[in-house]
Specification:
Length: 275
């Protein structure tokens, strides 16, 4: 069991603690197309671009409590994917068939993995008096994915946009997290998205650590983030006028995926992914 403590670490999930293979929705859609239409001609770059709008996190300034139900959430996302595929000149029937298969493919726990340092870092910080809260823009099935990865017992709480209706960096997403840490002497946000995680945390008055990832396959250096957290002393935050952002380079940088380098569109890549 996670013990409630006066120090809170708020973690992003996808791209920070764990990932789904290469980490993009385009990659998942291509997996489905490869099975259903083995001779298709669509590239990663084409599918990625087609999926660059329409997801709830693409309009993070607009709350979506009406989608706080798994089936309604997926009905919306399935419609987005269907329209994206038809924009690539796929037939309406084939696009609908593929889009309706994405839910099972994306949420398959076997497709998800933790980064090498994740469990060690979380456990070490727990032993040193930190509680962990997951703050994620993700799919409704996130709790089942966390269970399969062994993360649930290590988490004080899970705040998921699919359940709350607020996507990071919306202030209400961070307000949910801050409400759990009202008596905390130290609170940090750790994430890989400069806009949703880091700018959102700073705007809410929180210090943040950006575990920078330029490409979907990069591995974040969570141990370095933990070192920063461990060296932070109670009371230092009160001495500063503004919240801090500290950057951590990747532990391991990957080779680019086929096609255009996703790092050229870092903001759209990371906001186009469920977090």
């Amino acid at each position: 069991m996670v013990i409630c403590a006066p120090n809170f670490a708020l973690w992003d999930f996808d791209g920070t603690l764990g990932h789904r293979r290469h980490g993009t929705w385009a990659e998942c859609v291509l997996e489905v197309l490869d099975r259903q239409q083995p001779d298709h001609h669509w590239s990663f770059a084409e599918v990625f671009e087609a999926l660059s709008t329409g997801f709830p996190w693409h309009a993070s300034d607009t709350p979506h409590p009406h989608l706080a139900d798994a089936d309604r959430w997926w009905a919306h996302v399935t419609d987005v994917i269907t329209k994206a595929l038809t924009s690539l000149s796929m037939s309406a029937e084939d696009a609908s068939t593929a889009a309706h298969s994405v839910r099972a493919a994306y949420t398959d726990p076997a497709a998800w993995s933790l980064y090498p340092q994740t469990l060690t870092v979380l456990d070490t910080l727990i032993m040193q008096g930190w509680s962990h809260v997951l703050l994620s823009n993700h799919v409704p099935e996130l709790p089942a994915i966390l269970d399969a990865l062994g993360l649930t017992p290590r988490l004080h709480a899970v705040i998921n946009s699919a359940a709350t209706g607020y996507e990071k960096p919306h202030p209400a997403a961070f307000a949910h997290a801050r409400a759990l840490a009202t008596d905390a002497s130290r609170t940090w946000m750790i994430g890989d998205n400069a806009h949703a995680d880091i700018a959102g945390a700073n705007a809410s008055g929180l210090d943040a650590i950006w575990v920078r990832r330029s490409r979907p396959g990069d591995i974040p250096d969570l141990a370095e983030a933990a070192r920063i957290i461990q060296e932070d002393k109670p009371g230092r935050r009160a001495e500063r006028r503004r919240p801090r952002t500290l950057k951590v380079a990747p532990l391991l940088e990957s080779s680019p995926l086929p096609g255009p380098d996703p790092s050229a569109k870092l903001s759209s890549v990371r906001t186009a992914e469920a977090r």
